[in-house]
């Protein structure tokens, strides 16, 4: 009776060694800050995640603290609902982009508007807008093409926005 129990302990110990990991971790993680922030912590764990083979082994201690409000904001930001008090350029969205990005802006009065895209060497790649526009809300779209219609290379580009005396530049990242 005593020997089968010792044999059982030996077999269990033998199979338990497949998932052994000798390193430890002190870590914290998180998610998107613009909505609900997911926080995770781990202290003194040995491993969490993929191990050898085609299975997922969760070993160690992982505590999820759940959603913690990071920034209170409206359900959905709508730049169209903003009152037009001044000329303003909004950050391009999405950025980085792979198909098209939208450049939103407000004009407080009628004025000439120029939106140009430059590569990092300062060479002009595309002129999106070069005209006088009335007071209002506008969107310019860039699909990653140059003035000849060819797709540009992956990389960082500069969007230059000029509306009367207002000037602003912003960075665009194109990834195909």
UniProtKB/TrEMBL annotation:
It comes from the Bacteria. Residues 108-157 form the FlgD/Vpr Ig-like domain. Transmembrane segments: none annotated. InterPro entries: FlgD/Vpr_Ig-like, Secre_tail. This is T9SS type A sorting domain-containing protein. It comes from candidate division WOR-3 bacterium. Pfam families: FlgD_ig.
């Amino acid at each position: 009776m005593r020997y089968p129990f010792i044999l059982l302990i030996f077999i269990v110990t033998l199979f338990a060694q497949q998932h052994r990991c000798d390193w430890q971790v002190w870590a914290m993680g998180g998610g998107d800050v613009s909505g609900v922030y997911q926080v995770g912590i781990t202290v003194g764990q040995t491993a969490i995640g993929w191990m050898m083979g085609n299975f997922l082994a969760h070993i160690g201690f992982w505590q999820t603290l759940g959603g913690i409000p990071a920034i209170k904001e409206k359900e959905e930001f709508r730049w169209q609902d903003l009152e037009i008090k001044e000329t303003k350029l909004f950050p391009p969205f999405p950025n980085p982009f792979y198909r098209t990005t939208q450049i939103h802006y407000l004009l407080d009065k009628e004025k000439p508007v120029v939106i140009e895209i430059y590569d990092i060497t300062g060479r002009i790649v595309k002129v999106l807008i070069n005209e006088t526009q009335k007071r209002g809300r506008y969107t310019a779209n860039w699909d990653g093409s140059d003035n000849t219609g060819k797709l540009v290379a992956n990389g960082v580009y500069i969007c230059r926005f000029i509306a009367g005396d207002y000037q602003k530049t912003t960075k665009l990242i194109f990834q195909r």
